[in-house]
From TrEMBL:
InterPro entries: NadA, NadA_sf, Quinolinate_synth_type2. It is an enzyme of class 2 (transferase). The lineage of its organism: Bacteria, Bacillati, Actinomycetota, Actinomycetes, Mycobacteriales. Pathway: Cofactor biosynthesis; NAD(+) biosynthesis; quinolinate from iminoaspartate: step 1/1. This is Quinolinate synthase. One of its GO terms (cellular component) is cytosol. It comes from Williamsia sterculiae. GO terms for biological process: 'de novo' NAD+ biosynthetic process from L-aspartate. Belongs to the quinolinate synthase family. Type 2 subfamily.
């Protein structure tokens, strides 16, 4: 599946002058600048904190500034607003969406819940505020296993929207009473087993870091089981977990199966290791809409503000706060 993202704001280069202007405008606005691991390298470098979505959600809720500027996609900025209703939350380009979040609507979820009225709903954080408002506990890839393991084993679990993360959680927890929504991220789904096998065979000494939202996670475990890739070389990790593993690895070469923006943080964390993308086309066009031009426009003009209706925010906040209470943050800030 291909996805067409709107054309981003362009025309500004990330020069040292740009960097200085961004920093001084952020200070003048009393804003905290957050950047997701999949952002462009210049955006990561200018931010106050870089991390995965769980780590950034926690930082947003604890920040003492008047404003949060969220360099990421729209649902992430919505989550920051849900947790910090009194702060002004801005995203440099409100058109930066997410094909995974779009794979389930609030109406879809209402209909699914009606089929399983006693089930506990677990939503990966890549969902709209409305879907979070219909959710019992949110999760990220860092704590999805712990969230599902915390639920009464006799209750049915409805897990959404990422089918690959759901399959990973089901495998690790061994839970049978779990239904999984058939959603996917087109970027992660584009990293497939064939590509992984070819890359692993071409680099027999390399370790493999695989993000559980990748379509290749199942293949990586299968290949390990069949002896194609030594089992100890395959690591299924959240984005935050990848950074910890990067600092500790003894390998000289690591193949990385996730969005390519992650390579920047990994190379910074372990400059002596050769990190290579399994698929260097795995780049999220929505994440890359937060350009140097978009960030400057945001800081100069105070746009785009992210708003969530108070009743929706209140219901969504309960599910997000349960998420934050479970698991350890694995962000790379
Ligand atoms: S990489 Fe996939 S899941 Fe992440 S924001 Fe982009 S479309 Fe959504």
């Amino acid at each position: 599946m291909t996805t067409t993202a709107p054309a981003p704001y362009t025309g500004v280069e990330p020069t040292p002058e740009w960097f200085d202007e961004v920093r001084s405008l952020a200070t003048a606005r009393n804003a905290t600048l957050l950047a997701h691991n999949y952002q462009l390298p210049a955006i990561q470098d200018v931010a106050d904190h870089v991390g995965d979505s769980l780590a950034l959600s926690r930082i947003a809720s604890e920040a003492e500034t008047d404003e949060i500027i969220f360099c990421g996609v729209h649902f992430m900025a919505e989550t920051a607003k849900i947790l910090s209703p009194d702060k002004r939350v801005l995203i440099p380009d409100a058109r930066a969406g997410c094909s995974l979040a779009d794979s389930i609507t609030a109406d879809d979820l209402r209909a699914w819940k009606a089929e399983y009225p006693d089930a506990v709903v677990v939503s990966y954080v890549n969902t709209t505020a409305e879907v979070k408002g219909l959710t019992d506990i949110c999760c990220t890839s860092s704590n999805a296993v712990e969230v599902v393991a915390s639920i009464d084993p006799d209750r049915m679990v409805l897990f959404l929207p990422d089918q690959f993360l759901g399959a990973h959680v089901k495998r690790v927890t061994g839970r049978e009473n779990m239904q999984i929504w058939a959603g996917e991220c087109h970027v992660h789904a584009g990293i497939n087993g064939d590509e992984l096998t070819a890359r692993a065979q071409a680099h027999p000494d390399a370790e493999l870091f695989v993000h559980p939202e990748c379509g290749c996670a199942t293949s990586a475990l299968y290949l390990a089981g069949e002896g194609f890739v030594p089992e100890e070389k395959v690591k299924i990790l959240s984005t935050g977990g990848m950074l910890d593993a990067a600092r500790q690895t003894g390998a000289r070469e690591v193949l990385v199966a996730t969005e390519v923006g992650m390579l920047h943080q990994l190379r910074r964390a372990a400059p002596d290791v050769d990190f290579q993308a399994v698929n260097d086309r795995a780049s999220c066009p929505y994440m890359k809409m937060i350009t140097p031009a978009a960030l400057l426009r945001c800081l100069r003009e105070g746009r785009d503000e992210v708003l969530v209706a108070p009743d929706v925010a209140e219901r969504a906040r309960a599910s997000v706060e349960r998420m934050i209470a479970i698991g350890t943050p694995a962000g790379g800030e």
